[in-house]
Amino acid sequence: EVQLVESGGGLVQPGGSLRLSCAASRFTFSSYEMNWVRQAPGKGLEWVSYISSSGSTIYYADSVKGRFTISRDNAKNSLYLQMNSLRAEDTAVYYCARQEVEYYFDYWGQGTLVTVSS
Amino acid sequence: QSALTQPASVSGSPGQSITISCTGTSSDVGNYDLVSWYQQHPGKAPKLMIFEVNKRPSGVSNRFSGSKSGNTASLTISGLQAEDEADYYCCSYASGSTFIFGGGTKLTVL
């Protein structure tokens, strides 16, 4: 079965940076669009960013635009999220999610917790 | 963009049916038949239950069904079972090539 495993979360001070990774396996990673979705503690899901299968097309939620950068390495079957200028409101579990062409998320990782606090 | 509007909570007894609504705008739910629904148990990752308004992935019970009218999508769960107790989120593709989620609905099976 498809596997997505996030890593890289942790505690970071406001204004700091963190890089999340998502290791994909058991499917042809280079054929799929990917996304990051986050969930603040006790809150709902929030879409963060999208990247096309080749990496040539990228979109961001307004809340992270200019601070976060999504990327991928198809040779390494990996998805990344570089997070800069982190704020307390970025505290959340970050999920990577595979996107089907019909605009839905069919597989999700287990998530990695990012805590922004001094 | 604001989150899609879902009721905070719904409840039902085993065997009953419940419906969760998801209201958006003409820029998201009303403009695209690209609404999906996700089930999330505490501490777990979301699980896809419905895509493209009313399609079920393989392995999802036919007790789950979806529909849409105008700017409002709905998820119906029939024959409620204890294991259906979870949080449910709707999601719509939106103009500007973004996705927007609902605020989530906590389903309690009495």
Describe it.
The complex is a heterodimer of chains A (118) and B (110). Chain A has 118 residues and is mainly β. Chain A is 0% helix and 54% strand. Chain A contains no helices and 11 strands. Chain A has strands at 3-7, 10-12, 18-25, 33-39, 45-51, 58-60, 68-73, 78-83, 92-100, 104-108, 112-116. In chain A, the strands form 2 sheets. In chain A, strands 2, 4, 5, 6, 9, 10 and 11 form a 7-stranded mixed beta sheet that branches. In chain A, a hairpin with a 6-residue loop joins strand 5 and strand 6 (58-60). Chain A is globular and about 40 Å long. The model of chain A has no long low-confidence stretch (mean pLDDT 97). With 110 residues, chain B is an all-beta fold. Helix content of chain B is 0%, strand content 45%. Chain B has no helices and 9 strands. The radius of gyration of chain B is 13 Å and the shape is globular. Chain B starts with 8 loop residues before the first strand and ends with a strand. The chains are: A mainly beta (118), B mainly beta (110). At the A-B interface, strand 5 and strand 10 of A face strand 3, strand 7 and strand 8 of B.
- Please tell me the overall pLDDT of chain B: 96
Which percent bin holds the helix content of chain B?
under 10%
Largest sheet of chain A: 7 strands, mixed
Uncertain residue ranges of chain B: none
Count of β-strands of chain A:
11
This entry's quaternary arrangement is: heterodimer
Please, what is the average pLDDT of chain A?
A: 97
Tell me the series of helices and strands of chain B, N- to C-terminal. EEEEEEEEE
